[in-house]
Design brief:
There is one protein chain. This protein is α+β, with helices and mostly antiparallel strands. It has 2 domains: 45 residues, Arc Repressor Mutant, subunit A, CATH 1.10.10; 171 residues, Beta-Lactamase. It has 10 helices and 8 strands. The strands form 2 sheets. It has a 6-stranded antiparallel sheet with strand order 5-4-3-8-7-6, sandwiched between helices. A two-stranded antiparallel ribbon has the order 1-2.
């Protein structure tokens, strides 16, 4: 039986109102939500952190404000049609694959996993394959690390409550402390690498895609055989960073 809109479920209605606030405000703060919904700040904070836990919102590590999360970006990908992130990314992925001669992917972060959203395969005989629709541990991938680097220390520890990490090859970081140190390096360089950490003989470089409000909504990566990609790290880093910046500018 359909439920009349005259009798909304309050918690769902409040969650919807918070997400709709993003239409006019690219960054939400606890005080804003508290005033808009007429609830206590502690209640507003719980609502925001609940939406954050589902990746519908993401907290900026520097400003502590909340913006669109990767799950919201994926929802947008599904419903935005011709102006979707996926469509915007497609042309850039094609150019990125051509310029680097390696396979290019668009990925988002969900919890402690990365999800391959779109990709363009290299024309090289020996190449990284397309992985559209697949998932993997974020801490073992270049895209995962560059998106984890966007999280605050508290949020990272919420997602990784244990001190040991599982997944990947023997080259992958295996402790939370090692991951935190790796993420500091990512913040300094502006891009992340995967040196045979997710799979043997696979090398990848990734950069975050940020909208004009500075919020990361995904990542672009290029990947290929280690013996080839390792010789052109600077080229790959510059190419993927430039493509990610251009895609972010198109998102508005």
């Amino acid at each position: 039986m359909a439920v009349s809109a005259a009798y909304p479920v309050e918690s769902i209605d409040n969650a919807a109102r918070i997400l709709l606030m993003l239409v006019d405000r690219p960054v939400l703060r606890v005080a804003d939500v508290s005033a808009e919904l007429g609830v206590a700040r502690s209640t507003a904070h719980r609502m925001l952190t609940t939406l954050q836990a589902r990746d519908l919102l993401r907290q900026d590590a520097r400003t502590k404000g909340y913006g669109p999360g990767p799950a919201l970006a994926r929802l947008g990908i599904a419903v935005m049609g011709a102006v979707s992130l996926r469509d915007e990314a497609r042309l850039l992925l094609e150019r990125l694959a051509e310029d680097t001669s390696e396979t290019a992917h668009l990925l988002v972060l969900e919890g402690t996993e990365i999800v391959f959203i779109e990709g363009v395969e290299s024309q090289q005989v020996i190449r990284a394959g397309l992985r559209t629709g697949q998932r993997g541990p974020a801490h073992t991938s270049a895209a995962g690390k560059v998106l984890l680097a966007e999280l605050s220390r508290d949020e990272l520890r919420r997602r990784y409550p244990g001190t040991r990490l599982r997944g990947g090859t023997e080259h992958a970081v295996s402790t939370r402390r090692a991951l935190e140190a790796e993420l500091e390096k990512v913040r300094e360089t502006g891009y992340a690498t995967n040196r045979e950490e997710s799979e043997p003989d696979l090398y990848a470089v990734a950069a975050a895609v940020r909208n004009q409000q500075g919020m990361a909504c995904g990542a672009l990566s290029v990947s290929g055989p280690s013996r080839r990609a390792d010789t052109k790290l600077d080229l790959l880093g510059d190419a993927v960073t430039a493509a990610a910046t251009e895609l972010g500018a198109r998102l508005g």
